[in-house]
Amino acid sequence: MPKLRGEAFWRETLRGAHYVVAPMVDQSELAWRLLSRRHGAQLCYTPMLHAQVFLRDANYRRENLYGEACPEDRPLIVQFCANDPEVFVQAALLAQDYCDAIDLNLGCPQMIAKRGHYGAFLQEEWDLLQRMILLANEKLSVPITCKIRVFPDIDKTVKYAQMLEKAGCQLLTVHGRTKEQKGPLAGVASWEHIQAVRKAVNIPVFANGNIQCLSDVEECIRKTGVHGVMSAEGNLHNPALFEGRNPLVWEMAEEYLEIVRKYPCPLSYVRAHLFKLWHHTLRVYHQLREELAKVKTLEGIIDVNRELKLRCQEEIANQKEGEKPKEGLPFFHWICQPYIRPGPKERCRENGDSGTEKGVRGKRALEEEEDGNSELLSKNKQKKKLRNPNKSFDPSLKPKYAKCDQCGNPKGNKCVFNMCRGCCKKRAFKEIADCPGHGLLFKTKHEKSLSWQHSQRGIQTPEISQRRDAEVRETAVLKEAGDS
């Protein structure tokens, strides 16, 4: 039977899905997908999988796909990151029997994607992408889809989408942000770009970006004309988003934890989901946030969830009539609701800055501020600051070290070779030399060894001498007997 394409693929295989859960690294695992499907999601993606690792590592395949087969978890699209046509297709061939389509990730904007040369950092390499999609479209028994980010220019974005369609892409998900729009610089996704792509291609299009509640989904479909809408952060904070409900947080958390009992996943995934679900509540109960971060077992996480529920129920019981949510939230903190990520200016105002010059600077710049304001530091640096209040993260105050003649690392101050310890050890061993500065005594130990061996040759105890004399006499007697 020939594989379905375009509109037919979306309508029959994907069952005309409008509500889609995004591929999220370590967050769209089977347990979360099943929870989301129970509450309105019609299509789910796996977390992004690394094609090269998937191809070579049987354990990786089992942990991320093969061991998760579940009839309820369909339709399902498996997403890969890759930058080599052969590797991508070989990995997809191993996955195609467990899903309804294979997606190529062309939207990840993170630094790890830049270092690995995949995701949104391939969007300028159109020849490579054409070869990858053409080969996949030819070899796979399931359709190939793509998830992209936009270019600042709408016309270039449209040509990009048309190129992918011509190469064989059967469904396109368009995230309405550029690869530079991430973290505190994310800003608003451009539905105008998405609308232009939808009008320019003949394959189904999903929109991604600015989705916090069901009314956003409906408005996005109305304005852009897309076939479906994908949600990531909105879904993590409210898995009932596609139902149009804002349930009590503990209801979603308890249901998710029950699914995890049946379909286990790494504890880090579970903890991360509860941090998202309980986000607003954990800003009230800081101690429980620390407990959730430290707990080492699923039962421990369940206990923290139970305690959070009891605290909220007690707060509800003591609530005064007419009391309104605090901190500008649309609902009380124990109700599932969106988290609005602050932009650069809002983040600076929260940290006490003017919001002008510092407001437009990136995360790393904020982490390296010289004024000692711990709110501007990363969480790891804040922890170091707590352990050592006098610690400074100003790069200009870091001590300057002389470099190793061999590799450029800091050299030992008393090294006889002007090297770091690693290079010094290799040279001292090769030359049988000493370096007191690094505590390396190859020459001294070699000389002691030779001295000991020499002394052993010159020492003969009386017992040894008598035994040797007896052996000599016995040999002589045997020889004489043989001669006679």
TrEMBL record:
One GO MF term attached to the UniProt entry: flavin adenine dinucleotide binding
Localization annotation: Cytoplasm; Nucleus
Ranges annotated as biased composition (Basic and acidic residues): 346-366
Keywords: Cytoplasm, Flavoprotein, FMN, NAD, NADP, Nucleus, Oxidoreductase, tRNA processing
Gene3D superfamilies the UniProt entry points to: Aldolase class I (3.20.20.70)
Domain of life where this protein originates: Eukaryota
Ranges of compositional bias, category Polar residues: 450-464
Entry GO CC: cytoplasm; nucleus
Any Pfam family hit: DUF702
Annotated stretches, region: Disordered: 346-394, 450-471
Residue span, DUS-like FMN-binding domain: 21-310
Reactions it catalyzes: 5,6-dihydrouridine(17) in tRNA + NAD(+) = uridine(17) in tRNA + NADH + H(+); 5,6-dihydrouridine(16) in tRNA + NAD(+) = uridine(16) in tRNA + NADH + H(+); 5,6-dihydrouridine(17) in tRNA + NADP(+) = uridine(17) in tRNA + NADPH + H(+); 5,6-dihydrouridine(16) in tRNA + NADP(+) = uridine(16) in tRNA + NADPH + H(+)
Cofactor(s) essential for the protein: FMN
E.C. number(s) listed in UniProt: 1.3.1.88
Enzyme class: oxidoreductase
Function statement: Catalyzes the synthesis of dihydrouridine, a modified base found in the D-loop of most tRNAs. Specifically modifies U16 and U17 in cytoplasmic tRNAs. Affects the level of some mature tRNA and thereby the total cellular translation.
Family to which the UniProt record says this protein belongs: Belongs to the Dus family. Dus1 subfamily.
Protein name: tRNA-dihydrouridine(16/17) synthase [NAD(P)(+)]-like
Species for this entry: Drymodes brunneopygia
